[in-house]
């Protein structure tokens, strides 16, 4: 960490080296998990030991982080006591956006050329490292999968199936004009509510503004609505032809 101090422009490299050092010392969890501040009452002796060790590791990691910064940056975060707060503030200020990381890695890969007189082995190692970096970025920043687009032909077929209605058997139906205000008892109701009120009006014998007629087998036009009547116990169902 002494040779790779954080200077404000190398956040990603510095963070990678920091994680390597902390993972070796089994202190990597301090960076990602919030520091517990209060120990619940009735905690067991093991929980007390875990709580004390967590705070001790936090002090060690905090010292490592501050020591790996330049003096100017160190003064900005010296007042923060817990490591997660330090890392969160640094990420907001210095972290490079994901799209910039991907762009820089891709540009380096396609722009790298073997210099004249250089070693083939060193160039090969460099290119392999760039390939591995791109593979890592592909896994880390994989975009969410989009839903499969339904082909236009399939959408048209589904729409035609929805519009097509079976022929109506000869029976008594309530025939209402669609989106047209019925007179009398129905008032200004429209749509499904108008249809339900028409059913109630028919059963009560006050079907003013509603025509009841036996329909021969046919398809309804686009400006008609139908309502099937039940057996006297209630409405057995309704639908709207479009």
Would you give an account of this structure?
This protein is an alpha+beta fold and 242 residues long. Among the domains are: 84 residues, no CATH class; 75 residues, no CATH class. Helices cover 50% and strands 8% of the residues. It contains nine helices and four strands; from the N terminus they run ααααααααβαβββ. The chain has a four-stranded antiparallel beta sheet, covered by helices on one side. Helix 6 runs antiparallel to helix 7. The longest helix has 23 residues.
Walk me through the topology.
Blueprint: H1 11-24, H2 29-32, H3 45-67, H4 71-77, H5 83-94, H6 98-111, H7 120-140, H8 152-163, E1 171-177, H9 191-204, E2 211-215, E3 224-228, E4 238-239
Antiparallel strand pairs: 1-2, 1-3, 3-4
Helix pairs in contact: 6-7
Compact summary:
The chain has 242 residues and is an alpha+beta fold.
Helix content: 40-55%
Share in β-strands = 5-15%
SS-derived structural category: alpha+beta
Identify low-pLDDT runs.
165-193, 206-217, 226-242
Kindly provide the radius of gyration, computed on alpha-carbon positions and rounded to a whole number of angstroms: 37 Å
End-to-end Cα distance, whole Å, is 72 Å
Main sheet attributes: strand count, strand direction, barrel closure: 4 strands, antiparallel
Number of helices: 9
Walk across the major sheet and give the strand order: 2-1-3-4
C-alpha geometry: flat
Strand-and-helix sequence, N→C? HHHHHHHHEHEEE
**Quaternary status of these chains?**
single chain
Number of strands: 4
In round numbers, the mean pLDDT is: 69
